[in-house]
Amino acid sequence: MKIVVAYKWASNPQDATVGAQGTVDWSRAKPGFSEYDPVAAELARRLADATGGEVIGLTVGTKRVDATLARKAALSRGFDRAVIVADDSLEGAGSTQLAAVLAAAVRHIGDVDLVITGDSSVDVGSKMVPTVLAGQLGWPAVAEVISITGQAGALRVERAVPTGTQVLEITGPVVLAASTDAAVARVPGMKDILAAGKKPVESLDLAALDIPAAAGTTTVTGTSRPDLLTRKGQMIDASDPAAAAAELVAALRGAGAL
């Protein structure tokens, strides 16, 4: 069974700063293994161990995703090998473009039975890439996955839904997005980190991949805090509690908070 975990080497929002005008500065944000991807890696490792399968880490991004630190951080998560597409032209690439490159890489790997992703990326958090990736591959997509068992071509998947848990029987290849609490991800130890440096890594040339031409692209050019967070300093006279409450409700509705 060949399992691909699509992960992201992303900047941590906790290290970003917000300027006086609301513009978010990412220049000092340190990159790392995206917060929710270790859960996907853990689910993949458990399934591979149960079926005798292989886990392949796959990432696309700028040249920094192919740095030695980035490679070891990913491979120490339980991957057997990694496939990396590193090209600076992917700086600020949107969900559609990233998913198209990931799909091309999955096709290059070949005979993939399952792709698992995290719930979302820590930097953008759009939750769109798994679904768009599935569309690019022509595979079904399932989100909020909490359990995966079975064999290649015959998977039993449990997913969280508002009313409880839904059980799915899936035949053929599929893209699964793991719920954030689907598993407790193991923390890599020194042995894992040292072993990661010896695992094989395949670097793919972006230009050589079979990526369908897109009618258009989206590019992230910047981020800023929403205007809703701007304090207006509106004062409410509380001498009449009933009138104050009504004024507060009216003000919140006017601001779009209710």
Structure description:
Residues 21-213 form the Electron transfer flavoprotein alpha/beta-subunit N-terminal domain. Its cofactor is FAD. Pfam families: ETF. With 258 residues, the protein is of the alpha/beta class. It folds into 2 domains: 2-208, Rossmann fold, CATH 3.40.50; 226-258. It is 26% helix and 26% strand. The chain is built from 6 helices and 13 strands. It has helices at 37-51, 68-75, 95-109, 129-137, 190-196, 241-254, and strands at 2-6, 9-11, 17-18, 24-25, 31-33, 54-61, 81-86, 114-117, 141-151, 154-161, 164-170, 174-178, 201-204. The chain has a 9-stranded mixed sheet, sandwiched between helices. Strands 2-5 form a two-stranded antiparallel ribbon. Helix 2 (68-75) packs across helix 5 (190-196). The radius of gyration is 22 Å and the shape is globular.
